[in-house]
């Protein structure tokens, strides 16, 4: 059961953890669920922004690599956005 929840990814796993933590701190059930759903929506939104950024930045980066003869194999979006995609 636990492996199944982990396999769903951070978009599902982190909101579930947030709900559980909220309930541990005695936040009302509905408020904890709203907070968890909000976190999940934030993860999905962040993922969409990163995908759109990669789609729009990939062609210019490929041209730069060809012009300067670079050998770049990684497209680094930074630690913050990458941790959000999870």
TrEMBL record:
Keywords: Cell membrane, Membrane, Phosphotransferase system, Sugar transport, Transmembrane, Transmembrane helix, Transport. It comes from the Bacteria. The keyword Hydrolase does not apply. The chain crosses the membrane at residues 6-25, 32-54. GO terms for cellular component: plasma membrane. InterPro entries: EIIC-GAT, PTS_sugar-sp_permease. This is Phosphotransferase enzyme.
């Amino acid at each position: 059961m636990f492996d199944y929840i982990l396999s769903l990814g951070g978009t599902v796993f982190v909101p579930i953890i947030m709900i559980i933590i909220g309930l541990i701190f005695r936040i009302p059930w509905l408020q904890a669920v709203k907070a968890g759903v909000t976190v999940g929506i934030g993860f999905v939104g962040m993922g969409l922004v990163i995908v759109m950024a990669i789609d729009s930045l990939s062609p210019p980066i490929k041209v730069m690599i060809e012009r300067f003869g670079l050998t770049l194999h990684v497209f680094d979006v930074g630690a913050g956005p990458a941790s959000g995609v999870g």
